[in-house]
Design a protein that fits this description.
2 copies of one chain form a homodimer. Chain A has 13 helices and 13 strands. Chain A has 381 residues and is α/β, with parallel strands linked by helices.
């Protein structure tokens, strides 16, 4: 038990940039409210002078006024972070999420406090090493639709891998349904991809979707590993960001993780509330340990702009303490027609989810995958 | 391993009511999109005929058109539910959360499928039995502000309990900070409330906030139990709804649970996207096993209306399979001035969070609590 009485604050603070809507005066009022809500959440008159006011209460470090909304950078003591995602998210946005017109834009954590956050185990380079693909965008096929029997999913996986895709992932809808039990699916798909790899000499990775209660997720992750899966698909919006973090840090699991945005949408469907896509699809999954983060691409029917995608890619790749860069993973029913655009937009460090329409290509799936990979190779030059 | 090949659907379906914004035509298009997104999430042409189209794909059961938005009740096969919150939330809103103009209003699960959901262990009556308060609204004080040393928090807890409050809860900001370690705080506060109970002859419950990674939460819950805490405060938005469910179902923990809305706000800050407050603060916590669900009250600066509060209270209390009714728990810096209004609005089955301003009452805290309880008794008649 730490000695609370003799505790001294380090003086180190982490910062969160919030976009606050309304006039400058309204935004300044909101900034003060966030300083209070995200820390003591108490009426001013019960906040004692001294340590609580001077150290714990949020502090406005910068304020940039603009017409319809202002940007305020607030700081909090690193001592409020417990080294887990639950507490981080709480200080970031726990109470303020309940008030409209407050949006989390960006998080900055001083390097010393980042020591509690090992982040991605593999990251971009680790994932590239596993597949022996030093440069170029990676392409991932998806096993769908939900309801195909495990043998049919495994056959799809085999064809994707034989056609030269770099990764094959479970659809996020595949859980452990009676018509598609987890263990049967994962064993068959892992085996199918291994068979294709023996034939091609390549190292395609099969990513198994693990969901459920925390203990179930962990058991499934370990099963997937034993069955030969090359990685995991995890939905932190459903299971909690700490479930992702635990799987990423688990020394018995040690598989790369692709995070999926299921249920995280409500953070981004409102322009002036919630969280910026770069935070929720870039910073948070990376901090929690995802090696790649999937999100909906611009111009695909989702409220994500080109600027958002650029900012997500930046958050995935920029220098951030010791956290390895991860792959931005663009998804949204994309086919041949968007390959060149994506390669130009993202450059080499992109994971591209190929839309399921490829299953209906007139050349047949294996050939279609080969044509697709040719298109990527041409486009990425 | 289940035999996927011989599987037959039961034909039982659960339903979700969505509010879909736009013209009737736009809303109908959205309904079809949700049917697809929330199940197969695949282009129509790759969905085979037969079981997948007939059973798995969402189905529009009812559609009520209106001017600015329509209501569509969609059904999904119960076989998509895995008995855990992650999978339930996924089918409810996983992908559709990413599209603006779609809002979850209400969930209905057939009684047979509810067997996987034991729900609250105590519920309203169980909680009333623990405190020996058969009728009248319950009142809960909050230990804040964050930063007070454990001894000061324990003294607050003692005064609340001595003054006759029914429950005393940790503020959700109290985690395991170096200036306020979890074990020291919980041991001292539980002891302080027990001491007050010996003096009053009453049975005030102290609710300890448990947060962190899943294993940490469970360890903390067990510690709180051993230390004599009377219940737990859990934030499902931070830790995941399955963490709440696991704690509620754990036969070693067996403590009542109050759920807290931290980070769930982004579901409710937009009128036409996200989830209805009655779903996110009523149905979901109850299904996951909370015995009481805290949410911000109307007219307190949050985007929650009187109608929302009425609907939340209904969702907490209405007949729902074998799920016990739970306490709607109204919060939002309320003092004496809102007691009568709350008692009239909610009736007897209310848990009232008393605002921290009571700490500054000129009569002193213990006396103020007694006056407050008198006010509740008068108002609830």
């Amino acid at each position: 038990m730490a000695d609370a009485a003799s505790f001294q604050f380090s003086g180190q603070r982490f910062t969160v940039e919030y976009r606050l809507s309304g006039t400058e005066a309204e935004a300044r009022t909101k900034a003060a409210l966030v300083c209070n809500d995200q820390t003591v959440e108490a009426p001013d008159k019960i906040i004692p002078t001294g340590m609580i006011r001077e150290q714990i209460l949020g502090r406005v470090e910068r304020f940039t006024a603009a017409t319809a909304s202002s940007l305020a950078t607030l700081s909090y003591p690193v001592e409020l972070l417990g080294g887990d995602c639950a507490q981080l998210l709480h200080v970031l946005f726990g109470i303020s999420s309940l008030r409209p017109g407050i949006r989390v834009e960006r998080l900055e954590i001083p390097e010393a406090a980042l020591r509690d956050w090992p982040g991605p185990r593999f990251g971009r380079n680790g994932l590239r090493d596993l597949m022996d693909i030093p440069v170029r965008p990676l392409v991932c096929g998806v096993l769908k639709p939900l309801g195909l029997p495990p043998a049919a999913l495994a056959d799809l996986a085999y064809q994707f891998a034989l056609g030269g895709l770099d990764l094959v992932k479970d659809d996020q809808g595949l859980a452990d349904q009676p018509f598609g039990p987890f263990e049967e699916r994962v064993a068959r798909c892992a085996e199918a991809v291994a068979k294709a790899n023996r034939e091609t000499g390549r190292r395609c990775l099969y990513l198994a979707h693990v969901t459920g209660r925390w203990e179930t997720m962990k058991q499934r992750a370990l099963y997937a590993k034993r069955a030969g899966a090359g990685g995991l698909l995890v939905c932190p919006g459903l299971a909690g960001f700490d479930a992702l973090r635990d799987l990423a840090m688990d020394d018995a699991v040690t598989l790369p993780i692709l995070s999926h945005p299921a249920l995280l949408g409500s953070f981004i469907t409102q322009p002036d509330s919630g969280m910026a896509p770069a935070c929720v699809f870039g910073q948070l999954p990376r901090l929690a340990g995802a090696d790649a983060s999937l999100y909906p691409i611009y111009h695909a029917g989702f409220p994500v702009t080109r600027d958002d995608c650029r900012a997500i890619a930046k958050a995935c790749g920029e220098a951030w303490g010791g956290l390895k860069p991860i792959f931005p993973t663009a998804a949204g029913r994309m086919g041949f027609e968007r390959v060149l655009e994506m390669c130009e937009f993202y450059g080499q460090d992109l994971l591209f989810i190929v839309g399921s329409s490829i299953q209906q290509h007139r050349a047949g799936l294996v050939k279609a995958c080969r044509l697709f990979m040719d298109e990527v190779a041409r486009s990425a030059q």
